[in-house]
Amino acid sequence: MVYKKQTISSHEKYIKRCLELALLGRGNVSPNPMVGAVIVYNHTIIGEGYHMRFGGAHAEVNAINAVKDKSLLQKSIIYVSLEPCSHHGKTPPCADLIIKSKIPHVVIASMDSNAVVCGNGINKLKIAGIRVEVGILEEEAKTLNVAFNLFQTKKRPHIILKWAESADGFIDTLRDTKHGNAAQISNSISSLWVHKMRSETDAILVGRNTVNVDNPSLTTRKWFGKNPLRVIIDSNLTTKRNRHVFNGEEPTLIFNVKENRIQNNLEWIKLDSSKDLLPQLLTELHFRKIQSLLVEGGAFTTQQFIDNSLFDKCVIIKSEMELKKGVKAPQIDSSNFKTLKINNDQLFYYG
């Protein structure tokens, strides 16, 4: 086999396309990673695909199936944003399909951080005599699957903290469960952005007081997409049962120190009160294959995550309005945050 010389720049071009395709699976493939694949013959893309949903065909399968003339596979290069899998899961190994298809050259952006796969897919391809190149746009590929990679290495979900605060540092007025509505700090555009973020996250977490006072639904009702798993911290089970999170319409976990119980879509999970609660909660979510967790409050709950350095990204919607008094926003060093202006709101994000 004589290979036409491929420059690094051409490799990057096709890997970039793989990353673009992979992004199309965001919010639908967890706990699997997002993956895109492109098949190139004589500098022309003849097939491409991505992992569309968990349990469905992987990117390599969809790309190979998209090639009309299968005889060209023996003279082509397949570009993949992540190392092809080498084990039987919900689908057969992609490395085996590449070998069976007699594709002679594989270019991979990043190795798989899952210990079951890591390096094994590459080794299987090499043993079969396939030319393998790894590390093209590797950092971009790792960033794409930051939640998946952290889940594999730190054995906990990727944690995003999010809250909205006034210009003078309050997240709400002082209210109880009977009087007053929540202060409207964020505008309609940033609210849509938050619901989009929810649709791309596996689970959303709030504390007892937020449930009692705000009565949130914790859904993606303002954006197309799946609703995240609802997670409530209610140590002593004092949350009012007439709140939306107990309507049974969405799976909901209630972490507490009192009892274990299941009722339809609601599950109460007992934690050990003699130990720190957050690490136990995160271990349980990892066991349940929750890769990403959006923490939306309230102030006390969010501050616990900050104080214990249990977060990977922070999003603050900061308004120009002033409340003068109320519930103080969580305290965090935002000196290195990047800023994005959205109407009268500013999004400060930490990554």
Any overview of this molecule?
The structure is a single chain. This protein has 351 residues and is of the alpha/beta class. Helices cover 27% and strands 25% of the residues. It contains ten helices and 17 strands. The chain has helices spanning 8-23, 59-66, 94-100, 120-127, 138-144, 146-154, 188-199, 208-214, 277-287, 299-307; strands spanning 36-41, 44-50, 77-82, 105-110, 131-134, 158-165, 170-172, 203-207, 229-233, 252-256, 261-263, 266-270, 292-295, 313-319, 327-328, 338-342, 345-350. The strands form three sheets. Strands 11-12-10-9-8-13-6-14-17-16 form a ten-stranded mixed β-sheet. α3 (94-100) runs parallel beside α4. The longest helix is centred in the N-terminal third of the chain and has 16 residues, at 8-23. The radius of gyration is 23 Å and the shape is elongated.
